[in-house]
Predict the 3D structure of the following.
Amino acid sequence: MTVTLADVAARAQVSPATVSRVLNGNYPVAASTRERVLKAVDELDYVLNGPASSLAAATSDLVGILVNDIADPFFGIMASAIQSEIGGPGGRAGGERLAVVCNTGGSPERELTYLTLLQRQRAAAVVLTGGAMEDAQHAAAVAAKLRRLTEAGTRVVLCGRPPAPDTGAVAIAFDNRGGGQRLTEHLIGLGHRRLGYIAGPEERTTTRHRLEGHRAALAAAGISEDPGWTVHGRYDRTSGYEATLELLRRDPSLTAVVAANDSVALGACAALRESGLGIPDDVSVAGFDDLPFSVDAVPALTTVRLPLADAGARAGRIAMGREEPPPGGIATVRGELMVRGSSGAPRQSASA
Amino acid sequence: MTVTLADVAARAQVSPATVSRVLNGNYPVAASTRERVLKAVDELDYVLNGPASSLAAATSDLVGILVNDIADPFFGIMASAIQSEIGGPGGRAGGERLAVVCNTGGSPERELTYLTLLQRQRAAAVVLTGGAMEDAQHAAAVAAKLRRLTEAGTRVVLCGRPPAPDTGAVAIAFDNRGGGQRLTEHLIGLGHRRLGYIAGPEERTTTRHRLEGHRAALAAAGISEDPGWTVHGRYDRTSGYEATLELLRRDPSLTAVVAANDSVALGACAALRESGLGIPDDVSVAGFDDLPFSVDAVPALTTVRLPLADAGARAGRIAMGREEPPPGGIATVRGELMVRGSSGAPRQSASA
DNA sequence: AGCGTCACAGCAAGCGCTTTCTATCCTAGG
DNA sequence: CCTAGGATAGAAAGCGCTTGCTGTGACGCT
């Protein structure tokens, strides 16, 4: 029914071994023979049987990319960059590898299951992107899996995710704490003293780090934070919208709202506008990530730009073994503060 | 070195066959035996060898999702919906399948190569999303590949992509032409007579269909179009920005700009604003797709909402064989006109 | 009591490819 | 002219798993 290596061999009048060698190209084969084989391959429309090949060679060309939410450009941009370096078809890398992105939806179980599936497929490399869950049990389970993967020869790279000690995984982490701190410092510098904070889901490293940065800036400025100034939610626009309404209810005198990321910030802007508040005249807004649409918001969003594409590309190269891992297997990438129209001095800055 | 089925069998004191059956769970195994096996699996940290399993069973649990641009939420949303139906880990589907999304970057060769790679892996199903290239040669090559895939038992579903006749592929297409037409009719109804159009890349079905709808509306209203009113570009914000500037240069009297999609529309808005033109007072703007951020633009974008998530979910179910394909293997999904703040009557509507 | 039937469990034959080891043919040096 | 050695090609042994077919008791029916 289906064409096999043997069929090709028969047609080309050579042994299966020779066909295999032509196809893998790492063994001397006479030019004339090679041509005959390729011709047969073409005529027969032969397609290599991946599983059989992987089984026999004990390797696979699968590279897994785990993302929390594939519909979120934050992950899309990283995934895209990683994939372009993995090579995949058309990439500048040599061998064709199947770069696959797996959507965990932020669920720990799915993350674990995907990792198992990838391990099952004997993936050549795995890149995990974005924040990790902080649940201790889950973290341990993931760490164990990663360790098993690296031990089996799979290269594991964390991109935009904190290091996982003793797992053999290389980490390109984002300096979320520092970015959050600089962002809030900027607002404080503008004169703000009452700042609301819309955080991401609890138990997420990214959430915690950004929040810590924010609080560090507040503390450094001697501002004591009201517990009601922080609201947790998801990393999406709706969440930002609702959280802002809640924040306004709790303390109408807030002069700035710092959001967990740009999408949340956009939702915040919508809520403020609908509440009749001007941005930044009445309330300043700040986001995080600097996704492409952020500059188009009106007013344009003040945010922290994360080098998503660069980090992804680097992670991809490391995963492919085409770049040396950073010393210690850990690199931290800083974000750049982008000051735009959505932040300004509070109206009554003198009163603070 | 690595643990194999035989190791588990030895430890559980059963034959490899029994272990396999326990793991696949489609053969009667006594409860006590099953438990013994599972215990051994657990103790040994056994992970099935995917390639070996696929080879022996002549099937695989890989499902491929091809997207043009993974960083674009348009594709991200569809991919996410497809994946959630594929099951993947945690999905409501039974068997665990590895849903993988492949980023073609809109390149025909990459598309073909990914298709080959998927064929090589004996993928259980493949979903192709988004518009297709109209290059005849490439289209034929893709069609041939799809035919070969379906013949080999791989289910092929096109989502948001025109049907591919005689390939055995099921298509869930978007009514881009109708949507484009209704959108432009809306603007004409508002009184616009001079409309610029920022189209996507040429040679893309989506681009052509939307443009055809636009022109059909113009024709129906008896408006003869100036060739200079159409500019082609990419499906991104920058392209929209530049194209708008170009459009304005060609004909400053345009009262409306229709964009290929929402990202392009956002770029158009930016260009208009920078040119000192009010939206919609001076120029109305319309997008397409209704991505999440579109409602947050200021003013909110008038656009055509495509049921991306629904279509993706449906495509996913069909790919899994959990839903009957539509009659004839083709379904067309309509978009819904969303009238928002970015479109309004032209200033001098009476003059037209 | 005798035998057909189940319910399980094991045997063994591959699945289609890679790769080590070997065989063969040439070319070239002695 | 003979042979060492390089360049190719082939034979065959798996890679780790699935599954059709073959036992083998235990059970229930007549």
About this structure: Residues 89-94 of chain A have pLDDT under 50 and may be disordered. Chain A is about 45% helix and 15% strand.
